[in-house]
Amino acid sequence: MGSGLLIIATRIIRAGAITALILLLLGASTLVLLHMLAVGRACRQSLRAVNRAAGFLEPGNGLSSDDLDNLPCFEISTQNGGGEGGADGCALCLESFEPGDRCRILPACQHSFHARCVDRWLVRSPFCPMCRSNAGRRCSDSSSLSGCAYG
Ligand SMILES: [Zn+2]
Ligand SMILES: [Zn+2]
């Protein structure tokens, strides 16, 4: 009689222990899962912040290729080797304009640069690298400036 009760009690204790163990494992794995989710979310958030910070340098914020085509450009010849608009060098690569160089002049501020230099800049930022005026602003009387004939 007494031993029968003892066996039942032992079984109950053992079942309880197994249940406790299973619950413990479940709890631990849930914690690990939650931790991974939290870390993943934090990573995604910081990644978004970095992308936002770098956004102003990403292609897409600047001018489109159509806008670039609308900006007047000219080729340095021996006659105007000094450069149009009073400039005698490109502020982006710091090289002077040589005959044959294809240059672009920004209508808003009349600053001129090598086309290859300023195009690379303008696809990232629509502002003049020298004076920060908006290079994408469309000039109403662009007929006075020669359009790009080399597009
Ligand atoms: Zn240049
Ligand atoms: Zn400028």
Automatic annotation (TrEMBL):
Gene3D superfamilies linked to this entry: Zinc/RING finger domain, C3HC4 (zinc finger)
Q: Name one Pfam family in it.
A: zf-RING_2
- Transmembrane ranges, per UniProt, are 12-38
Question: Which branch of life, at top level?
Answer: Eukaryota
One molecular function GO term is: zinc ion binding
Q: Which InterPro entries match?
A: Znf_RING, Znf_RING/FYVE/PHD
Task: Please state every residue range assigned to the domain named RING-type.
Answer: 90-132
**What keywords would UniProt list here?**
Membrane, Metal-binding, Transmembrane, Transmembrane helix, Zinc, Zinc-finger
GO CC list: membrane
Tell me the compartments it is located in.
Answer: Membrane
Query: Record's SMART domains?
Result: RING
- Annotated PANTHER family: E3 UBIQUITIN-PROTEIN LIGASE ATL42, RING-H2 FINGER PROTEIN ATL56
Q: What is this protein called in UniProt?
A: RING-H2 finger protein ATL74
The organism encoding this protein is Platanthera zijinensis
